Amino acid sequence: MGPLDSWVRGEHAHDGTSHPTYRKGSGPGVIVISEIPGITPAVIAFADEVEAAGFTVVMPHLFGTPGGANGTLPVLRTLGRICISRELSLLALGQTQPVAEWLRSLARELHAEVGGPGVGALGMCFTGGFALAMMVDDSVAAPVLAQPSTPVAFTPRRSSDLNLSPDDLAAVKQRAAAGCEVLGLRYRSDPMVGKRFETLTRELGDAFIRVEFPGRKHATLTEHRQQDAVDRVMQFLEDRLRE
User: Fold this and answer.
1) Looking at residues 91-111, what average pLDDT do you find?
2) Alpha-carbon distance 229 to 49, whole Å?
3) How many angstroms separate the CA atoms of 234 and 120, rounded?
4) pLDDT of residue 92
5) Does pLDDT of 39 surpass 90?
6) Given 40, 88, 233, 234, which is the most exposed site by the fewest CB atoms within 10 A?
7) Cα separation of 163 and 92, whole Å?
8) How many Å apart are CA 61 and CA 26, to the nearest integer?
9) What would the 3-class secondary structure string for 195-211 be?
10) What is the DSSP string of 98-116?
């Protein structure tokens, strides 16, 4: 039995763009966006935990091979595809990822179906900032940023960038000021995150819940799983999404 056999494959289309999705569970909605190289067994295992906690989980398939293993070769293959993608960028500075509009549409559709205060949006590493971009839409009530790492932190300016356009950053700040909290997770010495947590603290103030762990590891919820990180995510989703 494969890791995705218990998940229902679907498709979501918006404005001429369509991507597969994998769905499971019942209850408030949570969109889990995989890290590079894609929906790996570790990502699926985390999503299974969210579903088991009583949530409807949707995993969009944006890159990689669903259910495929992690490793150097899959990562390099996925990076190569992202580099030529029109929807995704590793380097764009002061810009929102084009795929954000599709993800917001997915969030609106899920929220309309399951109801409640809104849905959760969780991004990891390359997609960490995607959850922040989705927060522009009122359907997203629980954004979670796990080790946000885009754009690639080659320079101090890049390492501080939130992967948002000025207009989207203004919208995020407005929602944060109105009470929509943002949960951020990272290992404190992870160089891939750069200075983004400092930027988030400055821009969002007390609305940014900053959770840091000692060390230079990276994937807080999957490959370098930190149980306290998983527990904090579950509690955040409970607090924000239950009526």
Assistant:
1) 95
2) 13
3) 11
4) 84
5) yes
6) 234
7) 7
8) 20
9) CHHHHHHHHHHHHEEEE
10) TTHHHHHHHHHHHHHHH-S
Q: What percent of the chain has pLDDT over 70?
A: 100
Quote the tokens at residue 139.
Answer: 């359907």
Q: What is the mean pLDDT of residues 102-125?
A: 97
Enter the tokens of residue 21: 């999705």
The answer as to whether 128 is a domain residue is yes
Residue pair 82/63 in contact (Cβ under 8 Å)? The answer is yes
Kindly report the number of other CB atoms within 10 A of residue 87's CB atom: 15
Domain-embedded: residue 1: no
pLDDT at 110: 98
A 10 A CB-CB count for 75 gives 15
Query: Could you tell me if residue 181 is inside a domain?
Result: yes
- Cα separation, 63 vs 65, whole angstroms: 7
Distance of CA 189 to the CA centre of its chain: 20
**CATH of residue 174:** 3.40.50.1820
The model carries a pTM of 0.96
3 belongs to a structural domain = no
Strands of the chain (E only): list them.
8-14, 17-24, 29-33, 56-60, 119-124, 140-146, 182-187, 208-213
Q: Which of 57, 39, 50, 52 is nearest to 2 (CA)?
A: 39
C-alpha count within 13 angstroms, C-beta hemisphere, residue 130: 31
Q: Closest Cα partner for 126 from 156, 94, 84, 92?
A: 92
What would the pLDDT profile of 140-197 be if each residue is shown by its tens digit? 999 999 999 999 988 989 999 999 999 999 999 999 999 999 999 999 999 999 999 9
The structure tokens listed for 208 are: 């940014």
